[in-house]
Design brief:
The protein is 83% helix and 0% strand. By secondary structure, the protein is mainly α.
């Protein structure tokens, strides 16, 4: 189990960094006018330079990726109800993501900004959850069908 968690941390870290990089490229394409913005420009002034800001964003994105990857173990726990697993996963994921988003200026630092971030987070989380739920349900139905045909 310990090796599994270490692997989840390692893999999750690089997934987080990768997602952060892809998002920065997408944002630069849509609003950069040919200029690449590796981080939010406000972050550069807050942390005293582009390199420092990129390093901080890279580390925090990696940590966030590791946290999310490790949170999958909550959903794998068969001793908890689906509701309890989902609420623990959702709450922990939201708190960690909101904290990093606030530090890195991924959201406006106001009540409205945090509220809009919350709504967007819940909508995306719900869509992913519903998609995953139907995938699992489809797989279970396939297994049950094969068992009936035996």
């Amino acid at each position: 189990m310990r090796n599994s968690i270490i692997k989840k941390i390692f893999v999750g870290f690089f997934i987080g960094v990768g997602i952060s990089t892809i998002v920065s490229i997408f944002i630069s394409i849509t609003i950069g006018k040919g200029i690449y913005y590796p981080v939010n420009p406000q972050l550069i002034s807050e942390f005293g330079g582009e390199l420092r800001s990129v390093i901080i964003q890279c580390v925090l994105s990696g940590i966030l990726g590791a946290i999310w990857n490790c949170l999958s173990t909550v959903l794998e726990n068969e001793n908890m109800s689906l509701l309890k697993k989902t609420l623990i996963h959702l709450f922990t994921g939201y708190v960690c993501t909101c904290f990093v988003a606030y530090i890195l200026n991924w959201t406006e630092r106001s009540i409205l900004g945090i509220l809009l971030f919350f709504v967007a987070f819940i909508v995306v989380y719900a869509l992913v959850w519903i998609f995953e739920y139907y995938l699992y349900k489809k797989n279970i139905n396939k297994i049950n069908s094969k068992l009936k045909n035996m």
